[in-house]
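hey can u run this one w/ S-adenosylmethionine bound, need the structure tokens asap thx
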Amino acid sequence: MLRSPMYGSSSLYNRILSFLHGDGYEDRFQRIAARLPADAWVLDVGCGTCHMAALLPAGMRYTGLDLNQRFVADARARGIDARIGDVLDVSSYPEGPTAVVVSDMLHHIVPHEESFLRQLGQALRSDLVICETLTTGSNALQRVAGLLLDNDGFNDFRARLRFHLWGEFTEASLTALLNRAIPAPPPRIECTENPGKVRRGMRFHTLLAHYQGPSGTGAEAVPEQLPGAVE
Ligand SMILES: C[S@@+](CC[C@H](N)C(=O)[O-])C[C@H]1O[C@@H](n2cnc3c(N)ncnc32)[C@H](O)[C@@H]1O
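ok here u go:
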């Protein structure tokens, strides 16, 4: 299946994401890290270029999982524990990590997003963080162009096309999906406008949902309201 050039080069991917989202690209990883205990072992599922690894505090450990062989090989060459794996196969995840992080990945796996989330909820570890970029103000042409740029080469292109034309996540629809798929425990959800750039009327927002399993301890360390949070 065809894939976007962005998914053939780690440096191109990072440059495009920084261009599109400005500070919002790194800000989301910092927000995720702020949710987790200082000694968390993060399993970053759909890790892409493992950009998050460099932004975690020193006491945290990192493992990335992705099907993109180029990204995984580049990350391993930088000394990062990155592994080839299908994120949809939740039962095959390595056992050690205490925190599962899903960053900007849900829109890649439609139409499997609900069953995927349900499995993550059933296999809850100490922490689970779901983080997704939401776009407002885009037109149909921009959404199709965005999909062509974002085509990873192994997901269901037609399902993704339908999703981007008619069913893109909004704050309300993603919150409803999360509540359906993972009815308990209750998550802490925040939705913030990215401090990045506004592009031709399009604005980017980040929705972050944090679940804690029985031994989770991270939420106490988090302030009630992060700066710039949208109610
Ligand atoms: C938009 S990138 C997000 C990368 C990174 N998590 C971030 O926040 O920048 C989505 C990633 O999910 C990966 N991906 C999509 N479907 C996957 C699957 N079924 N198994 C493993 N990785 C997958 C893609 O290869 C891509 O690297």
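The chain is about 30% helix and 20% strand. anyway lmk if its weird
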